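Re: the multi-chain job from yesterday

Posting the exact lines I submitted so nobody has to dig through the queue logs.
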Amino acid sequence: MTEFSLQMFQNEYLPEGSREVNAIVTVSAAGANGAAAGTGGGSSEIIMIDCSSSMNYPRDKIEAAKRATLAAIDVLRDGVHFAVISGTDLAELVYPRSGQLVELTPRTRAAARAAVHQLVARGGTAIGRWLALANRLFATRPDDIRHGLLLTDGKNEHEQPHELDATLAACHGVFTCDCRGVGTDWQVAELRKISTALLGSVEIVAEPAGLEADFRAITRAAMSKAVGNVALRLWTPKGAELRFLKQVAPTVLDLTGRRTVPDPGKPLVGEYPTGSWGEESRDYHLCVDVRPGQVGDEMLAARVSLVGPDGTVFGQGLIRAVWTDDTALSTRINKEVAHYSGQAELADAIQQGLEARRTGDVETATAKLGRAVQLAAQSGHGDTARLLAKVVDVVDERSGTVRLRPGVAAVDEMTLDTRSTRTARVRET
Amino acid sequence: MTRSCPACGSPVSPADGFCEGCGRDLLVARPDWEAAVRERAATLKCESCGSAGFSLDGYCETCGTRAPSPRDHLEFAVGPVAGVTDRGRRGHTNEDAMAIATVRQPGSDWDATGYAVAVVCDGISTARRPETASLAAVEAGIEAIVAGLRSGEAAEAATRAGVSEAVAAVRELATHADRNNPPSCTFVSAVASEDLITVGWLGDSRAYWLDSEGGSACLTSDDSWAAHVIAAGVVTPEQAYADVRAHTLVRWIGADAPDVEPRVRSFRPAGPGVVLVCSDGLWNYLPGAGQLASEAMPQAATDPMGAARSLTRFALDAGGRDNITVVVVPVPPDRSPR
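And the result, structure tokens for all chains:
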């Protein structure tokens, strides 16, 4: 049985007239052993492999993709329902041919492996169609923990952006999806849009040889999930306004626009999807504007609960606001809130700085990437600091003084871009 | 002269100490704190939006405002005695508590009040769970005082027994977790009969004698740093009260209290008046007995509840920085209007 716990970090004291309430909510799940250990539904997995013509150039891309797919199939547990999709400007179900998810047995595993060996790269790229097929297949297993793994090597050239957007909207709440780009001819922003919508990760695998280990790790993580379709439920007082709700660790993921109201009779209660959970811990940053109070007033600014797909409440925490004229209390800065505000700003600074660099806006790029260097140093985010140093020459990390580097390798820029949303945890002092 | 027992309806006579039918005490009348809290809880509305729905964790279901506590404002009346306790304007909780009672002499007229008793305690807000200390102290204190008076003890002895029971009750609240800062409170009691007033105290809650003849006086002397250094003649009252330590208590009730021997004093009034028992939430704004008398008299002698309410209102209007508790006991209690 998975046990969830919620922990709140905030400074509840506000000066008179103040209305902004910030809190970090840490959600930890323990005791998860994968869905097979549970009594409820099982797991479903669909692997979507880009088989556009460009996967042949160089030739080892398609061969590495096949090896990685075989490795992923090997990691899947018996009993999981699965499929493999070959993606071009169309979506083709490579295995099973029956047109629906099939249960994994020694026989189907062998048959799937044989089918993957036959994959050929020929055609264009329309990622939304691959996702739409996966969505149809997953729809028949509503109680499963449903996970997709998508690999591409290029841009989404053979459908309109609005078509992809419509497909993503249809996939909300059906499955989560981790996205991988192989090589450097794909667009980080495009794949990030997909992974964000489907609550998954996006990473660059620059060398095809790296795919096999990566697919194995992703599939293992998917198999470790024990509870699917978990939502953060938020009660906020009448008249309050949610500024944002973001996952801030292990990665930044803005959930603000994902609100649904499960019961129209209770308009103060909204739910935000968090996907599926194994044994892990995530942090969320909540910022809500409430009606300002007077000294001595106390208000519940938000009640945060974690709920399962059937409405089961796994845990709950309170975020309070207390107005005081004691400035020693109201000016206290909460360590967790400050840290994650900085991490979210770091992610924004990197993405905006790289975008400005691409469009030739040297001034903005220098300022944003300089700020990123400064924030990474302050928060002890060594990984990001090292990636930044490949894109800019750091003159002084404390003041954020940098110079743009000429001739930056695409792989370094894309790695920095995809890793920008990874955050460092709060350092224990 | 025979009446029906208010609890079970059996016939009872004025000479009976207890009802033969159900055992109800026929000499002591005392408002029940728990019942008052329950009654008030049922009528509470959100102070901010007026709705009546509160979550189990204690907030308004609509606007999130902290649900008011029934203890934020309570009013008690029995016989001629009336009291009000109020959270004030600045505190989050009401850490004051009060208890009042009357004790009739066996054989006396049904409506006679032999003794009127009032106890006020002010939880020390720097201690843990101060509101539990003040409530435990008033309940244990008045129970012992009333029991003593009922069994014929003198008022001073009953008062000492009351303080000693209050001390025991508050000490019992202390746990290992709050050993450095156990629940603590002040204590003041007043027992008024026809011609004698007995007060007992630990801390800086006060009892005053108020009349309209210029005889008003504070009957207690604070167990505070300021009062002690003034009494010792070290500094002037102005200097003492300007010091940051002015209100620091030198004696109180709590598991960490070094000295819990109460001071007890009796006073024979020259004529009619009232005893006012209060916490510092009132007297901080009206410290002088003369000031209190001109604010409360003559209303307090004939309308004790009205006077308790208007003194509370006075403290609230003046800023209400602290919890306010005011109990008015007309003297002699027996001849006061009901």
